[in-house]
Amino acid sequence: MRAISKKVFGLILVSGLLLVALLHTWSPGASSGVDIRPRVGCTIEKLLQKKMKDFISGYHDIPYHIKEDVACHLAQNVCVCEADKETVHLPFSYLFFPRVWAHNLDLAFLGSDPDPEGVKSRRAQEYSSFQRRSYTPADLLIIADANSPLHYPTQGVEVRPLKTIIIPGLGLKEKPRSRHMVYLTAALGTFDVAATVDGVSIEGAGERNMTLSSPLLSRLNRQLQFVTYTNTVFHPRTADTIQFATEGHQSVFTIKVGHSATPKLYNSGSHGEYNISALVTIATKTFLRYDKLQDLIDSIRQYYPTVTIVVADDNEHPNPVTGPHIEHYIMPFGKGWFAGRNLAVSQVSTKYVLWADDDFIFTASTKLEKMVDILEKTSLDLVGGAVREVTGYTATYRHTISVEEGGEEGDCIHMRQGYHHVIKGFPNCVVADAVINFFMGRTDKVRQVGFNPRLARRGHLEFFIDALGSLHIGSCSDVIVGHASKIRLPWSKTEAEKAYEKFRYSSSDESKIHEEVFYFKNRFKCMTSN
């Protein structure tokens, strides 16, 4: 008997040690953090810029002549606010000779603001943050050294639709010969030169094929520094494939054609501590649960009395939801879960939107400031929190998602519980691909992904599958919201609760819709999960 007790004790001890080891392995604080703060530029960029500068400076002593009709089309980076002058003074002349009007926004807006310098400072800070978040290493200009012997840009060259740029980094390095020659070919634009160099012959200026030649390699390279590209085929998001060749050698590079991203900046008030009311709007959807919705609102007001709450409501007989800083929007009856999300998020005017189910309860641990802090200081677009049940169990619902190419029949999507890595500087936060149904995101990025309105009664991972590749997502276990109890004895349920369960969990063709969404819309042939 004593021997059996020892074996049982040993088994319990070993199991306990394995459990501790497992928890330690999965603990966010156990692994080193990864720095995901947004940044612009790096050491390699400085090195590349130096190499580019050294190449260009080798031909400064060779004179050139500005070609005004081409150079005038180059971007000056100094736009002006200037209206057309009225030249014809006749009745209704504006109908036949429409003039360009101009409105100076900085003078008009700042002139009436009590703190114009503060507004300018906040605007500059927001724009700086936008630039850091928008930058990727793929935007960096890289010039291939003349090993082929052609010297040309491999990435980072961009032109706005129907505009003109100088192509950086063109050059030729070869042994002396009687005549040096290069060829340029484009598909969506034309070539020209912003200045001419004596001793260089140019054929095809203003056309899609241009040839430059000279008996002196130095003068040809000087001329190549003034080669321009003008986009002539309007397409707001494409790229032109440029062929750059010399005798016996050919290279290909691309020029991106597109408008630059228009910043979406939010004037959220003064610097210093986060003004949650100015930064965050809480969005929710309700259906047959006005009692729980009121509990949610009451709990929010206990900690955030002035934060705006947007409520989407698709009840058949809606009740009024009133109070300070509450916006109540009525939808068609039973329109659905994701449609309600779309409506609620569409009405948010703050920088961030917090999604909360209508049966959540804010507590002292629901610190929205922590969510704002990580979104402000990292490149994350969305961060989830944790939900604590009445039993005391706290869930974060972290998943990783990957898509494996599957050929003509479609791809395979794989979902696994877990996360990618801990975030440096935020030991309780990790990077994942899907998080729990309590999250804060950048409003414009959440709208960019959107919610499929066909998913009426259930849906969660579908949003994060659509967000894969668009949103950078994190999860923080130290921002916790409570969850109203779902444990109710059958005879104690209200009529509203019974109606909700009947509508929410009744058999329908919802499963068929989900299968269609994954198979047809997302082009998956297989889904795996654990």
Q: Characterize the largest beta sheet: strand count, sense, and whether it forms a barrel.
A: 12 strands, mixed
Query: Structural class, please?
Result: alpha+beta
* Terminal-residue CA separation: 41 Å
* CATH fold node name of one domain: Spore Coat Polysaccharide Biosynthesis Protein SpsA, Chain A
Query: Total number of helical segments?
Result: 15
Q: Specify the overall morphology.
A: elongated
Q: Per CATH, which architecture of one domain?
A: Alpha-Beta Complex
Q: Could you name the CATH homologous superfamily of one domain?
A: Spore Coat Polysaccharide Biosynthesis Protein SpsA, Chain A
Strand tally is 29
- Taken as a percent bin, the fraction of beta residues is 25-35%
Quaternary status: single chain
Low-confidence stretches: 20-30
Rg result: 31 Å
* CATH class (first level) name of one domain: Alpha Beta
Task: Indicate the percent of residues in helices.
Answer: 25-40%
Mean pLDDT: 83
What is this structure, in a nutshell?
Helices cover 29% and strands 27% of the residues. With 530 residues, it is an alpha+beta fold.
